[in-house]
Amino acid sequence: MMQTLHSRLWLMAASFIAICFLGSNQAQSQMYPPQGRTLQFMGRYSTGLYNQAAAEIVSYDPATKTAFLISSVAVRLDALSLADPSNPTLAYTIDLSPYGSAVNSVAVKNGIIAAVMEAPVRTDNGSVVFITTAGQFLRQLPIGAQPDMVTFSPDGKKVLTANEGEPSSNYSIDPEGSVSIIDISTGVNNATVTTLGFSSYNSRRQELLGKGVRLFGPNASVAQDLEPEYIAVSQDNTRAWVTLQENNAVAVINLTNNSLVDIYPLGTKDWGRGLPRLEKYTMDNRPLLGTTSAGQDILLGGFSGLWFEGMTEDGKMKFLTHPDRGPNAEPANLGGVNKRPFALPDYQARLVRFELDPTTKSIEITEQLPLFRADGVTPISGRPNVQAQAQGLAYTDEFGVDLFGNPIPNDEMGGDMEGIVVAPNGTYYLVDEYRPAIYHFNEDGIMVDRFIPMGTAAAAGRTPGTFGTEVLPAVYGQRRNNRGFEAVAIEGNKLYAFIQSGIDSPDLANDNTSRNANFLRIVEFDIVTKAVTGEYIYPIFERAQTCDKLGDAVSLGNGKFLVVERDDATGPNARKYIFEINLFGATNTFTNPPALGAGKTIENSTYDELIAANVRPVFKRKAVHLPSIGYDQSDKVEGLAKINDNTFAVINDNDFGVGGSVLPAVPNGLITVNPTPVVLGIISFDRSNALDASDRDGAGNTASINFRNWQNLYGLFMPDAIASFSADGRTYYITANEGDARDYTGFGEERRVSDATRVPLNPQFFPNASTLRQDGNLGRLQTTSFINPGTLAASSPSTGDLDGNGTFEMLHTFGTRSFTIWNTEANTVWDSGDDLERRTAFLFPNFFNVSNSNNTRDSRSTSKGPEPEAVAVGTINGRTLAFIGLERIGGIAVWDVSNPHHPTYVDYLNTRSFNAVFNYPTEGDLGPEGLTFVAAEESPNGLPLLLCANEISGTISIYQINPPMVYVNAATGNDKNTGINSLNIPAGTGPKKTVQAGINGVANGGRVEIAEGNYPETITINKQATVIGAPLRNSQSVVTINGGNGTTLTAIGTDNSIFQRINLGISTNPSARIASIPTGSSGNIVLVGNAQIGGSNISSNIAASYINDANDAGYGTGRFLFAPTTPPAHNLALHLNAQSLSLPNNSEISEWNDVSNNNNNAEQSMRGRMPLLSTSSSFFNSNNSVVFTGGRGMAVKSNGNLNGGNEKSVFIVFRTGASLAGYQTITELGGTNSGFSAYIFNGQIYFGTWDNSILYSSRIVSPNTTYLAQMNYTGSRVGWSLNRITYSAPFNDNFIVSDLSDIGIGSVASGTRYHNRVEPSMFAHPFAGQIAEVLVYNSSQSEMRELTFAYLNEKYNLNLGLQPLEKSMDTEWELYTEESITDTHNAEFGIYPNPAATQAAIVFPTNIEGNISIHDVMGTTVGEYTLKNSNRLSLDITTLPTGTYTVHVQSGGKSMVQPLVIVR
């Protein structure tokens, strides 16, 4: 069940994004549900200080159940008792003014409080004060300037402070930012302080700027400019991440030795397009490429380039690719020299065309075009060209050998092809790694030319032209072996070839220059003039993390490209990126050769040295971390193509399935062949990611909710708070991307786009600048700016001035209005896009983007929107929840981040009073600044809590966390806080709970009832349980659980669980999953309900594409089922299952064993009356059946358990025979006095129930048709169902309590009743059909009936949908009561139903010839008919009035009469 991509879904998603908030509809209410479903407001404490930074940070001590709150301006610490979370009270206050001028943060751990203090002169070094939770002063220690945050390591051994070091208001003093680490492992009295600054980066300023770190303070060094804001420590206590908010970066600290590891830029978010989403397609059924000399087959693969050729008329995507040099093993040391083994030395290079069908998810290879030399005859192979010098030096390839170690000849034109483009004239250009070379082929695959570095032939002592036309700079001949050209792109007539890894310049035999190079080269080649016209320098900063090579590139136009960088790893933490680069502003080193110092080359220079030499490398920004969106299965991402502006494709080089093979010491002709998939990835930048950038974008420049994308506008993440958490054994960090501008008396960077003086725009990038500057567009948006006209604080790509000439090519917003999950190398794993802003817009349209100090609608759209400020993470019942505080509009958003790559929304709650006057106590909670999670085991009420410090209102708000939907803890069986209802939290305390039982220590698991409602939730379940929705209504579930774009249901562990009466749904996003059973999990999930996409039911076959289970590689062995594989066992009194019979086909059956273990076996001792076994019947989905045709039948001995009781449910799966004439007993339970029966009479099926009263219902059936019939008595009603067409009616007798007659299967056993006669005979009126299964329950419980119905429906492939219950009378049924039954025992024809309403049938035992007439009570003929050689006449009586009629039949000289009653 692989992932799927439907073009229709793309269109649906695009349509949905276009929905306007002001026109809210049902789809929006599903996507943005009401607030407060998980967070429950408990209580509030107020400092009484409004807008005085009186409640910025709160921390919690579990031992004393006390929260500690700092009031910065008041310079005090408040201790709040949370013994009653609904009524927090002040326990005591500590005056902190003796220790400093302001207190900025507080943390508590193991009975110790740490508070950080500003110095009286805030630019001086501050301090940390330690106090016990009893209020006793311990110690004060000096730390860096202006400490802004303090935290304990998880083990409590270290305290860390972020010392922001902000400048003075006039910027005359700018202290260095720092991080202090206080080791208290041996006690506070023995504490030691280590303060880490950033002075080591002062000499790397240009490198940081090139990476995207913002450094722009007036005259500030790097150490002064970096301002630590917040700290998160990894759960293993080894690393600390420090946000550098104004710098849009994080610093990483190694806590094992208290050292600075690195500074990571956080990059930008492109407001011009959506966020990336991936669909993967495996290329199956690849053809044979060749067979080795030892007989090993190798399939086509090794694809190392990609080009999109368009769409077919039927919607398929057409691609062009090519293998590299053919299958080869790792270099083998043969004779003391490393040589490259080729598995297929005669492999011929080729182009490969294939098509992707997004609907079927299939890839078809449509063409292989072989490549030839210019003579059109000589194949171009993948063998090396030349060995001009010793290995590792210029113009030298590896030696090629076969799999036996025998040398193979060079091919002067051989190519290790690594990229392809199609020129405007339709010819092909490929690049290779050997020389490196640029190949040109015509449309037929014949080489036109090959362009190589100058000096190649001379170095080899060969004739010029032997290896190609020498036009490339000679230094390219110094490429490292197999690290030549790896990527190629084309823009108009200019081709750009990218060196894979740094050139070895200076050239060293060990290639150390290349291995340590921080720069690659891009050569610009004019395909018309056949000349090099440019060269650009590409910085590969990621080399420090072993990401040292490129994969491919594609042009975006106007000098912009996407480029793949990669390492050799696989998995979620692999380093595989797509970067966006821009040649604008970069130095053309071909036309402007750099003047570097002695011994210096581009490759061995630092970034700062290049800038000093007036060499500006290309600008680059990270667009995608491929493993984070799911493309992590391969180490070689070597193909990249553009489909449209927002859709791209990638493909992997699978090394033909022989990658990493190592020959034995004595080569034997064999190579290791491992089936390695080729995976095409389609990346769509379509996850919603827009912003409302103006407060005047409505009609007439009024406020409006207006989300749009803008080209060349980027968001700076600039996080404030940060938290860490673990998932699948990996550490992740989560940030609230507030954004922050520097604004001082002596310096201010924030200006509106309308300010043309401070925000000059480059017309090449902003041709519509005057329109953009209008208030209704971007004119009102606050952005980065020049300090003074023409003077930028630090002109650099990180500030949007790519060429340093004083105009902006890119605009940047402060913050991204989102929260982001990062891996440990600052790669974006997931970002919330525009969800926070859109969600608050939907919930509070009249207060959209208001500030925290006024209710002016849309006022914050121009600057940071809802402004995510605070973040906390906590684990509840095995799920990791993230809490995001929104500083401006207020409120807290909750997301489940247990799967960091696919978080799911949980809740949002805003306890602000929008209509209040802004003064305590009427305004509620304003300006969430700090969040603290309290685990259930540490909570005063035993339930998880969230504490929120609200800076503006000066309040602490306490929330109880009622976890989302269902999660049963496998280790403890804890059933607290499971279940949910669709309503907002009611007043009072306690979780939203529903009926639960049997979780603790009970083998059959727990039960969780879900109230009626639509839940945009995700569920993880790891213990056996029954999760059941409210009763069905009109045969439909009234409970829907929809995980949106995530995975709705995740099943962990070995236990099986049932989800009943529930619709499990997802959005129309093809990446979403209805269910997933991850690796290591073997439990099955049974859904007795509907699978849905976008609110519509889908079949199980379609649903399979959105489910990951045992049918998919890389997932668990558990299965997702749409019905139980066995029926419910409780109250099962009889179970006859033909599949349990182990006899040859057509065998007589003397005993049909009861598999319910009640020994109620069906028997027949008379030969000739024994039914026959039909094995693997196609009528019953290849299951067995028992054939009763020919006067056969069986009986079950009566007993009190089976016959008695006042509740019954009977299920029968049967197939009618060719004849429906006469009485045919399918089954009868009871006897002539009381019982159930199901039988056929002259073309109708009858269900009968009788005791003191008599009630029958009938409907027409067809011959040779399979049916599922159900009869049940619920205690007050009786019901019948045939293939989901149901009738039920009141029936209050206590039936089947006195008659202990045997039970008939396929015939009467010892007497029964029909609607028009009593039948006392044994084995009378046999069924002329087949029965596959019979179940009898001493219960009418609806859940049991639903499960049994689902079991039979799925087993026999009946496709009947959900079980209907308590349906009112269907017009297809006719009802018979005791008073209306006509005794036709001796009648020669029958009329049924009788009474009738609209239709009736006249049925004869045999075919007749005759005339039939109908007469009313006056004798008037109202209908005349003729019957010819038939036994049945169907009557339409809709035009006849109600009343009594007579039916006269004349046949064979004989007259017959029967009454007909019409009742409506």
Describe this structure in words.
With 1464 residues, this protein is mainly beta. The chain is 6% helix and 40% strand. It contains 13 helices and 98 strands. It is globular and about 125 Å long.
Number of helices: 13
Helical fraction equals: under 10%
The outline comes out as globular
Structural class: mainly beta
Gyration radius from CA atoms, angstroms = 39 Å
Mean pLDDT: 88
Largest sheet, described in full? Answer: 9 strands, mixed
Number of strand segments: 98
Quick tags:
single chain, nine-stranded antiparallel β-sheet, 1464 residues, mainly beta, nine-stranded mixed β-sheet, 40% strand, disordered N terminus
Question: What is the topological layout?
Answer:
Elements: H1 7-17, H2 26-31, E1 39-46, E2 57-61, E3 66-71, E4 76-81, E5 89-95, E6 102-109, E7 112-118, E8 125-132, E9 137-145, E10 147-152, E11 158-163, E12 178-183, E13 192-196, H3 205-211, H4 222-225, E14 228-233, E15 239-244, E16 249-254, E17 259-265, E18 268-270, E19 275-282, E20 288-291, E21 297-299, E22 303-311, E23 317-323, E24 332-334, E25 337-341, E26 350-357, E27 362-370, E28 399-401, E29 417-422, E30 428-432, E31 437-441, E32 447-453, H5 456-460, E33 469-472, E34 485-491, E35 494-499, H6 512-516, E36 519-526, E37 531-539, E38 549-557, E39 560-566, E40 576-582, H7 607-612, E41 619-625, H8 626-629, E42 637-644, E43 647-652, E44 679-687, E45 713-716, E46 722-727, E47 730-736, E48 743-744, E49 747-748, E50 750-752, H9 769-772, E51 782-784, E52 811-814, E53 819-822, E54 828-831, H10 835-843, E55 868-876, E56 879-886, E57 892-896, E58 904-909, E59 928-934, E60 945-950, E61 955-961, E62 996-997, E63 1006-1010, E64 1013-1015, E65 1019-1021, E66 1025-1029, E67 1039-1042, E68 1047-1051, E69 1057-1066, E70 1073-1076, ...
Parallel strand pairs: 25-28, 32-33, 45-52, 63-66, 64-67, 65-68, 66-69, 67-69, 68-70, 69-71, 70-73, 71-74
Antiparallel strand pairs: 1-61, 2-3, 3-4, 4-5, 6-7, 7-8, 8-9, 10-11, 11-12, 12-13, 14-15, 15-16, 16-17, 18-45, 19-44, 20-21, 22-23, 23-26, 24-25, 26-27, 29-30, 30-31, 31-32, 34-35, 35-36, 36-37, 38-39, 39-40, 40-41, 42-43, 43-44, 46-47, 47-53, 48-49, 50-51, 53-54, 55-56, 56-57, 57-58, 59-60, ...
